[in-house]
Amino acid sequence: MGGDFGPRSIVQACIASLSATPSLHLTLVGQPSLLEELIASHPAVDRARLTVTAARETISMDDKPATALRGKPDSSMRVALELLRDGKVQACVSAGNTGALMALSRHVLKTLPGIDRPAMVAAIPTQKGYCQLLDLGANVDCTAEHLFQFAVMGSVAAEALGVTRPRVALLNIGTEDIKGNQQVKLAATLLQGARGLNYIGFVEGDGLYRGEADVVVCDGFVGNILLKSSEGLATMIATRIEALFKQNLVSRVVGALALPLMRRLQADLAPARHNGASFLGLQGIVVKSHGSAGVQGFQSAIARALIEIQENLPQRLRGRLEDLLP
Amino acid sequence: MGGDFGPRSIVQACIASLSATPSLHLTLVGQPSLLEELIASHPAVDRARLTVTAARETISMDDKPATALRGKPDSSMRVALELLRDGKVQACVSAGNTGALMALSRHVLKTLPGIDRPAMVAAIPTQKGYCQLLDLGANVDCTAEHLFQFAVMGSVAAEALGVTRPRVALLNIGTEDIKGNQQVKLAATLLQGARGLNYIGFVEGDGLYRGEADVVVCDGFVGNILLKSSEGLATMIATRIEALFKQNLVSRVVGALALPLMRRLQADLAPARHNGASFLGLQGIVVKSHGSAGVQGFQSAIARALIEIQENLPQRLRGRLEDLLP
């Protein structure tokens, strides 16, 4: 029921995902009449693979996590997570209120043993490919132990996505040992002693985009600011390029020729909009699609959930945590 | 003596600034023989406006602030700051080690009454013009009181640069009151009660680039990560655009046509390289030019110092602090 474009674009994304992946089954959770109406406009859909589960309430973008937890026992978000907890589905994908989704996920699914707080991770494009950046805003104040847990989770997630011996780094304002705040310095000490983790040290903001690490760890305040400012900057650059190209006849012609190139670039540079962000550290797979992602974005979020199911990410994470955590 | 390109490009920038501004006098501080040799290759320069002051030592980029403070009593950086403290010059511009420059500035010049820690500020381009972002890395752990002081200093700096009633915002991970860490929430309370300050609330990373505020306040850890990741992203985008344009014959032709447009954009988007960053809150004007700025960048840093001299920024700041601080 969530997302800036509402269930219409989510249903569209689901229909597209079902045709792309013949083994996929989807359950839509929300107001049945509305969902059935939206599905009805796609008569070719295989209804054996697309079911609807009723939920009377909806969590709005303005609802506080506490309201989601205590005030709406039959919200679509909660019902979806309960289906996951009860083994009726293998992953939950939502485009709704992030804070509510995190609070409900922790409450309904619980964290893995050894994990205090789940983290939110997304793939960020770099000069050399992608890096997994976490936390993206779920945890504002983090201790060194939390950052250590994020590093372990990010490393396992990167492995699941196909990276061999992922290079794990802490985001910092310099690469020397003396740089940074207490949490970061202490987390570095913890990570230096961790067996089986390819910890490479500190990385700076520009080093992240140069592709110096496969996993970049920071607290949720810093990660959220980095992600949103990057999105804002990418949008500003796109706007300026358009404006430059419109200035005179020559640049208009150049601009018209360059347009398809620019479109590809823009799509590549808005990863959080286009790919989902995963919640790591829960006893279950939860993927958050960007609220303004649209059809394509929600489809990518479903695809990320599929990979995590195939790779059995929570179970892999559980095994690695048993090895690594004290 | 500092900067990635050394004194050669600094001397070049000085010569260019002297011809651009007939009222400007410059004093170069460092190894006299080297500096005189570099000046000698510009025979047209008006030596009445370009003097040299000797300093035997140089602070390297790897020197710790403690080394700068205690181990090198005759460093070019320290001697330049002492000239400023003694009223022999009106501002100090350096492309050297940032941490050393900040430590020496505090030690030699002292902070203004009411300021615990100086902050580093730079103008960041936005969709609507520029915003002053501070702190950029001088203060890693900040209390709410520090953030409040940064807000006051940023507002006065924006006014000096020509902005009427600058909109001051705190950088946060959401715009609702409940969002953020303790320091940010407490700083919001302090700012809401400040007379004569146009505090507009929280701004997010994307809001900064949308131009929602004229002054954006954060701790030095967050500001440094934001600034460097923005530089890294802008570089990555420029690299990708170049690569896109090289793919085939059509895109090569488009790329050749678009090149001058792209160059202008790149120049506009690397503000920290192109404009200097000011240290605010000191009893004197200190501008830090980016180490890799080159001739143009150092010239811009000198231009920023000139504006701050004309606007008598430290004195304005002192007056405003007396009005605003408890």
UniProtKB/TrEMBL annotation, chains A, B:
<protein>
    <recommendedName>
        <fullName>Phosphate acyltransferase</fullName>
        <ecNumber>2.3.1.274</ecNumber>
    </recommendedName>
</protein>
<keyword id="KW-0444">Lipid biosynthesis</keyword>
<comment type="function">
    <text>Catalyzes the reversible formation of acyl-phosphate (acyl-PO(4)) from acyl-[acyl-carrier-protein] (acyl-ACP). This enzyme utilizes acyl-ACP as fatty acyl donor, but not acyl-CoA.</text>
</comment>
<dbReference type="InterPro" id="IPR003664">
    <property type="entry name" value="FA_synthesis"/>
</dbReference>
<keyword id="KW-1208">Phospholipid metabolism</keyword>
<comment type="subunit">
    <text>Homodimer. Probably interacts with PlsY.</text>
</comment>
<dbReference type="Pfam" id="PF02504">
    <property type="entry name" value="FA_synthesis"/>
</dbReference>
<dbReference type="InterPro" id="IPR012281">
    <property type="entry name" value="Phospholipid_synth_PlsX-like"/>
</dbReference>
<keyword id="KW-0443">Lipid metabolism</keyword>
<dbReference type="GO" id="GO:0005737">
    <property type="term" value="C:cytoplasm"/>
</dbReference>
<comment type="similarity">
    <text>Belongs to the PlsX family.</text>
</comment>
<keyword id="KW-0012">Acyltransferase</keyword>
<dbReference type="GO" id="GO:0008654">
    <property type="term" value="P:phospholipid biosynthetic process"/>
</dbReference>
<keyword id="KW-0594">Phospholipid biosynthesis</keyword>
<keyword id="KW-0963">Cytoplasm</keyword>
<keyword id="KW-0808">Transferase</keyword>
<comment type="pathway">
    <text>Lipid metabolism; phospholipid metabolism.</text>
</comment>
<dbReference type="GO" id="GO:0006633">
    <property type="term" value="P:fatty acid biosynthetic process"/>
</dbReference>
<dbReference type="GO" id="GO:0043811">
    <property type="term" value="F:phosphate:acyl-[acyl carrier protein] acyltransferase activity"/>
</dbReference>
